[in-house]
Amino acid sequence: MALVLHSWTPSKNVYKVLIAAEYNGVKVDLAPDFTMGVSNKSPEFLKMNPIGKVPLLQTPDGAIFESNAITRYVARLKDSGLYGSSPIDYGHIEQWIDFSSLEIDSHISTILAPRYGYGVYYAPTDAVPPVKTPEEAAAAAKAKAEPKKQEEKPAAPAEEAPKPKAKNPLDLLPPSSMILDDWKRLYSNTKTNFREVAIKGFWDMYDPEGYSLWFCDYKYNDENTVSFVTLNKVGGFLQRMDIARKYAFGKMLVIGSEAPYKVKGLWLFRGKEIPQFVLDECYDMELYEWKKVDVSDEAQKERVNQMIEDQEPFEGEALLDAKCFK
User: Fold this and answer.
1) What's the per-residue H, E or C state across the chain?
2) pLDDT tens track for 94-138
3) Neighbours of 278 (CB within 10 A)
4) Does residue 60 have a cis peptide bond before it, meaning omega lies within 30 degrees of 0?
5) Among 31-40, 170-179, 242-251, 278-287, which is the least confidently predicted range?
6) Statement: the pTM of the whole predicted model exceeds 0.90
7) What is the average per-residue pLDDT within 155-183?
8) What is the pLDDT of residue 223?
9) Distance between CA atoms of residues 236 and 204, nearest Å
10) 251 pLDDT tier (thresholds 50, 70, 90)
11) Which residue has the higher pLDDT, 187 or 97?
12) Which entry of 42, 115, 207, 219 is 20 to 30 Å from 305 by CA?
């Protein structure tokens, strides 16, 4: 039986377990379709942990809850030295685990929880007001006793009419026969015969005068040694590309069955070049080599097809993951 971690994600308590597992070469699977408040209240879950707390690790020998306990368990599964090799090593490791829990987690949550809507923010206040000198007290009493002069308020300046919002340069391009939303809808709704329906539909819609296709390759693939870190890197890129959602469609592939993982992508942009505002505002763009697709080259067109449909193997290698921006 594989190790299965039950919890909602993303969660720092889940990540600490996954990081330890990755470094120790231990495979930990996330429980599929976990729903907080539902999955952890099921009879099956409550048999493993009667209080319904997550994360919980299901092992061949029984269940473990509490993220630090799970992390220790995973770190000790192999004799890799991750958990130290002497009593002083163990002591130092336990020391920093406790420090993180008691000195960092317990305090940082009071800062982060209100920002995420999970708590109330209380502004800092002085517990004891400063003691005034007799002179300061007398001056304050005198100022309080004197009637305040009403100051004439200057007339409020007339409100300026709101300036019209500047249009995105892409909105000023000549109309295109390709309707991007139609393609995104076709891509999302095609469940069978993908080549015959979605891929054919894409090329029927594609307008080289109004849109351009681009391949991208991550420049630093040798750094992609940890799978979930690589996936998070790609996910962050797609989040920051939200500024272009109205004007772009993209596929990002994480390739390889073992590290280092390769990251390659395909992007469809409005216009004949990559939009300048994307290059200016999304810093990830400079982390990739960009090459415009020559749609007259059948080999390049076939590569486009394979990337759109997440073909596996891709260029002779397994797909670790495929993400779509639409």
Assistant:
1) CCEEEECCCCCHHHHHHHHHHHHHCCCEEECCCCCCCCHHHCHHHHHHCCCCCCCEEEECCEEEECHHHHHHHHHHCCCCCCCCCCHHHHHHHHHHHHHHHHHHHHHHHHHHHHHCCCCCCCCCCCCCCCCCCHHHHHHHHHHHHCCCCCCCCCCCCCCCCCCCCCCCHHHHCCCCCCCHHHHHHHHHHCCCCHHHHHHHHHHHHCCCCCEEEEEEEECCHHHCCCHHHHHHHHHHHHHHHHHHHHHEEEEEEEECCCCCCEEEEEEEEECCCCCHHHHHHCHHHHHEEEEECCCCCHHHHHHHHHHHCCCCCECCECEEEEEEEC
2) 899 888 888 887 777 777 666 655 555 565 555 556 666 777 777
3) 19
4) no
5) 31-40
6) no
7) 85
8) 92
9) 32
10) very high
11) 187
12) 219
Note whether residue 106 is domain-resident. Answer: no
CATH number assigned to the domain comprising residue 180:
3.30.70.1010
What pLDDT shows up at residue 128? 56
For the cut 60, the answer to whether the pLDDT of residue 92 exceeds it is yes
Residues contacting residue 25 through CB under 8 Å, at least 6 positions apart: 78, 80
Split into its structural domains, the chain has a count of 2
Check whether residue 55 and residue 183 sit in a common domain: no
b/e map of 187-213 (b: 16 or more CB within 10 Å)?
Answer: beebeeebeeebbeebeebbeeebbbb
Burial class of residue 32 (count of CB atoms within 10 Å of its CB; 0-12, 13-18, 19+): exposed
Give the pLDDT of residue 150.
65
The pLDDT, as a whole number, for residue 129 is: 62
In a domain, 150, yes or no: no
Closest CA to 224 of 254, 250, 251: 254
Rounded Cα–Cα distance for residues 57 and 48 (Å): 9
Tokens of 185: 């809808």
The residue range of the domain holding 53 is 3-83
Residues 62 and 197 in one domain: no
Do the Cβ atoms of 81 and 20 come closer than 8 Å?
Answer: no
Per-residue tokens: 324: 């779509």
